[in-house]
Design a protein that fits this description.
alpha/beta; three-stranded mixed beta sheet
């Protein structure tokens, strides 16, 4: 029995090693949250599914092997599936690790059947990509109806690939916001950012290309078309050669609106030209949708895009959402669709498969990461020119021992506001002169940054925030590979 247990344990450890080497992972604070990109109901390899462990095909749901059983070992001596998983769980122990959710055999069967349903559930990894300052993060927030990714008017605000999950009973859309595409990275940090873009592009099921009415197919002064159409020649070639669905989002159409008239009542000529030019270079793109993501989740373009992604849901009316964009624009859909695709054709762009994450899963990023991003967003809003690009924010302390006091002490029905999170952060700059700028005369500038950041953090976390900021010089951190690996920009 002991030999059989060790044999099963070694099998699971080997599978875990295979997963680690074959799956693309987002690693933050020791937590690996990125699943395999093409997981189907009866995949032959194991996968970490959020915090759940799926069992490979050669193990049935009752914990018995379906083939290759050892005749010398009786059925009664074999450990159950749950026992094996619990034993495997005990082998991994390090700071910051979140324990896996090990389901009982009965729960695993019920949960698997529920997720498979009638085999019509769809799940897809959707990568959002485009040039800097196209509104990719704003679009992600609008689709999710939540401020997950920081967004400013400055280019290259996003440095990491950020996952946001949109889940319904019939679909799960895993949206990955990526840094803006940089043709020629100037330093190691930018190379790491482009590594994040390439990784997200490699793993995705659907491309969501974000451009705007000016950069998409812009015209040079001599009248010649811009060959890369504002996304880079290499990336455009990858899109043209890819056999995966592509949806192009022409953002910021409000910038070319005629007076006070809605851009969706009468699509501006400039937006129509941009749509048609993108159709000429991506004739097989599934859809080219005009949007104004800055208007939020209820913008007609955002609603239409969300409807395309969730077309598998019976309650989603794709046709009505597209009609709300106004009169049809030539080039919005491929010529062979004769107008707009059917609901069934739209749903089919997402692969069939069970959800990769639990229904309440929202992002793979930790609270510490979100706090650092909100502080960094404040730096972009507070300083001009190149100053914010030289800054990195690291969270040193994150004490949430009093975070849920209000929830624990509201039995008397009285409103309380004692919940609090204590955050200590350090702002890294590259030179002593930059430190002086961030601190300001008499420390006034860093005080103002702290006040503005604290307001953002209180809104995000829903409780009081005690924020302590320090400024430290870390010379040339943007070109230091070891530091960038430590900060999660490079692997």
């Amino acid at each position: 029995m002991k030999c059989a247990r060790m044999q099963h344990l070694m099998t699971l450890l080997l599978m875990a090693a295979t997963i680690k080497s074959s799956a693309t992972a987002f690693i933050d604070g020791g937590i690996i949250m990125r699943p395999l990109s093409h997981l189907h109901p009866f995949h032959t390899s194991a996968a970490l599914c959020g915090s759940r462990i799926l069992i490979p095909q050669h193990l049935s749901l009752n914990g018995k092997k379906t083939d290759g059983d050892d005749d010398d070992v009786g059925e009664s001596s074999k450990p159950s599936q749950t026992e094996l998983l619990l034993e495997l769980e005990s082998k991994f122990d390090y700071d910051g690790r979140i324990s896996s959710k090990v389901l009982s055999d009965d729960d695993l069967i019920d949960d698997t059947l529920d997720s498979l349903g009638s085999q019509q559930h769809r799940c897809a990894l959707v990568t959002i990509l485009g040039l800097p300052n196209m509104g990719k993060s704003t679009l992600l927030n609008a689709l999710l109806d939540d401020n997950l990714a920081i967004a400013t008017s400055r280019p290259q605000t996003t440095r990491h690939a950020i996952l946001g999950v949109m889940t319904t009973d019939y679909s799960q859309i895993c949206l990955t916001d990526t840094p803006g595409i940089i043709g020629n990275p100037a330093y190691q940090l930018q190379e790491g950012m482009m590594g994040a873009v390439n990784g997200a592009v490699r793993d995705c099921d659907v491309f969501l290309v974000v451009t705007d009415v000016y950069s998409g197919g812009k015209m040079d002064n001599d009248g010649d078309d811009d060959n890369d159409y504002g996304i880079g020649e290499d990336m455009l070639a990858r899109l043209q050669q890819s056999h995966r669905p592509v949806i192009v989002v022409v953002n910021k159409v409000d910038l070319v609106a005629d007076g006070d008239e809605s851009v969706y009542t009468n699509t501006p000529v400039k937006a129509i030209q941009t749509i048609q030019k993108w159709r000429s270079v991506l004739p097989d793109a599934f859809a080219i949708i005009p949007t104004c993501a800055a208007n939020g989740p209820d913008d007609a373009g955002v609603v239409a895009l969300r409807s395309l992604l969730l077309a598998n849901d019976p309650d989603v009316d794709v046709g009505a959402a597209i009609r709300n964009l106004g009169r049809p624009v030539n080039g919005m859909f491929p010529a062979d669709t004769k107008g707009m695709p059917t609901k069934e054709e739209t749903a089919s762009i997402l692969p069939l498969g069970p959800p990769l994450y639990h229904a309440d899963f929202f992002t793979d990023r930790t609270d510490r990461f979100c706090a650092s991003e909100l502080i960094r967003e404040t730096l972009f809003e507070s300083f001009k020119k190149e100053m914010p690009y030289c800054c990195e924010v690291r969270i040193e302390t994150f004490d949430e021992s009093k975070r849920y006091i209000d929830e624990d002490n509201d039995s008397d029905g009285k409103k309380k506001s004692k919940s609090m999170i204590r955050i200590g952060a350090v702002i890294l700059v590259e030179r002593d002169s930059q430190k002086g700028i961030v601190v300001g005369k008499g420390g006034q500038k860093i005080k103002d940054v702290g006040m503005d950041a604290r307001k953002k953090l209180e809104t995000f976390f829903g409780c009081k925030i005690f924020l302590e900021l320090r400024v430290k010089v870390d010379k040339n951190w943007r070109s230091n590979k070891d530091r960038l690996k430590q900060f999660g920009y490079m692997t």
